[in-house]
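SAMPLE LOG
Freezer: B-3
Tube label: C17
Construct: single chain, 89 aa
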Amino acid sequence: MSGQMCWLSRLGTNGEKILHLRLRPQDTWRPYTAFLQFVVPDYQIPEGSKGWATYQKLLRSGWVLIPSAMESADNGVNHDLETQGRVQI
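STRUCTURE (predicted):
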């Protein structure tokens, strides 16, 4: 299965960007940690990008990167998942 990836700010801030995923273009963006079936443990690098290992895996699997400039961090992002923890779809 392939989907879309985008680097969006965490919790609607202009701060650190983390990987967000969606399975279909009409779906809302969700943090990569919400997709237990796809997530790969992050590299243990100080200040490393959250989701980089998952991004590399999914890119090799045919997922498409959507430029962050085309998406807004508040446009269709389900922030509740970041505060509620992981969920499996």
